[in-house]
Amino acid sequence: MNKTFLVATMILVPAAAQAANTKICFEAEKPSSLQSPLKKVSGKAGKISGGGYLEIPWDGNLTKGKGQAGYRFTAKQAGTYTLWARTYWQNGCGNSISVSVNGSAPTTIGEDGTYNEWKWHEGLRVKLKAGVNTLVLKNRETGVQVDQFFLCTDADYQPTGTRKITQ
Question: I want to staple 27 with a disulfide (CB 3.0 to 4.6 A). Which of 3, 50, 60, 167 is the partner?
Fold first, then answer.
């Protein structure tokens, strides 16, 4: 091998490795639109990012299916991303959310038995366009809290803790 090839390989590999997992993260409590009964809540510093979260208040599911939060976010590059939501389930009656990306049919995230702790839940693989995209959080079940949304192009990547906000 010649030196030019080796130098080019050493320079290009790190750049390619960085581009391999494009990450987008934004706060759930900062929607561009919000309909009741969903509401922004402040507090519990240290357990949540950004000093707050979005809540679908517990009411015995009287408002189930009512209200939503809309988000606008920017993808620097088009591609297929995995959507994650950092959530807190209070009990089995409130352990899922419904999301729609770029006008797609709503998809359920959650329905597991992890209660009383913040946890990342994997949603779905979504196609994003370069530029502005939309996400709509719908009221599927009450008694749910959402801290952050995270999207990445690496299907095997799993976020932990609170993530650095990119938007």
Answer: 50
Closest C-alpha among 40, 37, 59 to residue 48: 40
Reduce the DSSP state of residue 116 to 3 states and report it: coil
**What are the structure tokens assigned to 139, written together?**
């009221």
Per-residue pLDDT at 44: 65
Of 91, 59, 69, whose CA–CA distance to 146 is shortest? 69
Find the distance separating the first CA and the last CA of the chain, reported in whole Å: 43
Q: How far apart are CA 64 and CA 135, in angstroms?
A: 19
What is d(CA 27, CA 50) in angstroms, rounded to the nearest whole number? 7
Distance CA 57, CA 62 (A): 10
Largest CA distance in the chain: 71
Q: Express as a percent the part of the chain with pLDDT over 90.
A: 63
* Residue 16: band (very low, low, confident or very high) from pLDDT cuts 50, 70, 90: very low
Q: Which two tokens stand for residue 65?
A: 């299916």
**All domains of the chain, ordered by start, with CATH?**
21-152 (2.60.120.260)
The per-residue b/e assignment along 13-35, b for 16 or more CB within 10 angstroms, e otherwise, is eeeeeeeeebebbbbbbebeebe
